[in-house]
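> call design_seq(struct)
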């Protein structure tokens, strides 16, 4: 049985992450962990505003703390209720230390982590990629599925491939973790930025591997700037497409899957992204 971890901010509970987690754990009969990041340094209220505008009396601070506790408790109860109704084997983790450190630690003991692509763990709205997500992706110890705000079941897979080990590793990890999705329409997408025509890098080896993992996959090789061509192509793919990539790792760049590629996809698309890398 696989173990999937869905990471939540209990003060801004992501129903999208919940629904994708229920969907995938149900398909793969996985154990699902709801990891609630109850970071004590993060509250729904701003200390500065409380002190300057209202005066931070003990009674007023306790009132706000109690409100946050009830909000977090309600989110956990909602998660448990959804798991029971879906017949999912689950457990809860309440992480009450620094959120980013705790969730990275959780990733060591997970097969797959799911988290909202817009997660910030701050008061402030940030455009994707948020600092929290960038920090998580550079140090995670398991593949991560970044989820959109609204759940939509998958109908198509797009596997991004640039001939580098990280992209092949991500495709293999996806195949191992979610074999139930192999029957979906699958496209292997590559971009030739030079004069290599429309041939895949390591064409024979890659097609030999894909025949064993995704035998019905079709291959698309675009030409031009990788970021521009991939975004343009994926914008036409439909909103029930899952994108698989192996780009996000610290200190290494591939031919065209730089960290900015993952960032570009987060900025330009609202599709779920399965991201894995080999360190």
């Amino acid at each position: 049985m696989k173990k999937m971890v869905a990471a939540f901010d209990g003060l801004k509970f992501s129903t999208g992450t919940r629904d994708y987690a229920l969907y995938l754990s149900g398909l793969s009969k996985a154990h699902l962990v709801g990891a609630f990041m109850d970071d004590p340094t993060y509250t729904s209220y701003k200390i500065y505003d409380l002190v300057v505008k209202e005066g931070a009396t003990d009674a007023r601070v306790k009132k706000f703390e109690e409100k946050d506790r009830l909000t977090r408790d309600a989110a956990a109860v909602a998660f448990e209720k959804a798991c029971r109704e879906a017949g999912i084997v689950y457990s809860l983790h309440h992480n009450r230390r620094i959120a980013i450190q705790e969730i990275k630690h959780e990733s060591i003991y997970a097969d797959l982590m799911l988290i909202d692509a817009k997660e910030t763990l701050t008061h402030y709205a940030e455009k994707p990629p948020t600092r929290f997500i960038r920090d998580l992706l550079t140090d995670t110890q398991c593949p991560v599925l970044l989820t959109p705000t609204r759940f939509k079941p998958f109908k198509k897979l797009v596997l991004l491939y640039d001939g580098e080990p990280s992209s092949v590793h991500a495709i293999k990890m996806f195949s191992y973790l979610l074999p139930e999705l192999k029957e979906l329409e699958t496209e292997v997408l590559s971009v030739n930025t030079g004069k290599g025509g429309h041939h895949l890098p390591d064409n024979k080896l890659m097609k030999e591997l894909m025949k064993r993992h995704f035998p019905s996959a079709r291959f698309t090789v675009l030409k031009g700037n990788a970021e521009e061509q991939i975004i343009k192509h994926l914008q036409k793919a439909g909103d029930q497409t899952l994108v698989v990539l192996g780009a996000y790792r610290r200190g290494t760049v591939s031919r065209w899957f730089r960290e900015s590629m993952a960032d570009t996809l987060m900025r330009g698309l609202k599709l779920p992204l399965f991201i894995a890398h080999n360190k």
